[in-house]
Amino acid sequence: MHVISITVLLSLLSLLHIVASQYYNAILMDGVSGTQLYYPQDQNAINNLTFGLQHCKFSIAFNINNFAYFICDGTLKRFNSVNLTTTNCDNLITSRQGAGATVFNNEIVVCGGASTSNKDAPLLSSCEKYNTDADQWTQMTSLPIAISSLAMATISNRLYVFGGFTGDTSPCSGSSAVYVYFNDRWNVRQQIPTPIYSHTAITISNDSALICGGTGIENGQCTNAMMGCYLYNVSSNDWTQTASMAVGRALHSGVMANGEL
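Given the sequence above, the corresponding structure tokens read:
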């Protein structure tokens, strides 16, 4: 087995319900199917590894200071790629699935999602942040609405929330709301052109983010896996429809790597 070093690229391959942290020569994946290393250069994989990760269906993963952090419901684990060990970190304040998450000032921020412990109030508005140095979660100001399957991004050193599932039982019951966090509160921004959830948000510059895929209205119809993408500009606070993906996707993610998405 190769000893590998972490780079700053991270992605969630949610169609297979696996989480991936990009390394110099391999991708570490963990999900319900187990843990594996995938080598994109030759498209080979090492399966059934035992690194102590939890094989969680709705995992969230981030790369901070050359450590890979994996969130599974209410637990957080830190993976060290040098000695291939996993450490248990401080548990989340609220156990949740389908949350939005991003890294802000070297801290992991998690918002919304569906409660895994309270069936009477399944959707959450609460937010919390994790300090990697202190190994501690602290509460943040809650979102204005309870929501899951939302997307989050850090743009121009500020937190943004895009869309999400509102809990309405009608088809395509997504939200088009956009919020930005500053002065310890969530402030409303220009709405996404279409209500959407189970989508992805990728920061592509210091002033913009790309929203792609998800479940929502496309071409006048409720679509479970949309192809469309929208570009949000922070300075002008407006949206532009861009080229669509070749394949419709939902519950997916993406990253910028070498200037490409």
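The longest strand covers residues 174-182. Try to locate this feature in the token string yourself.
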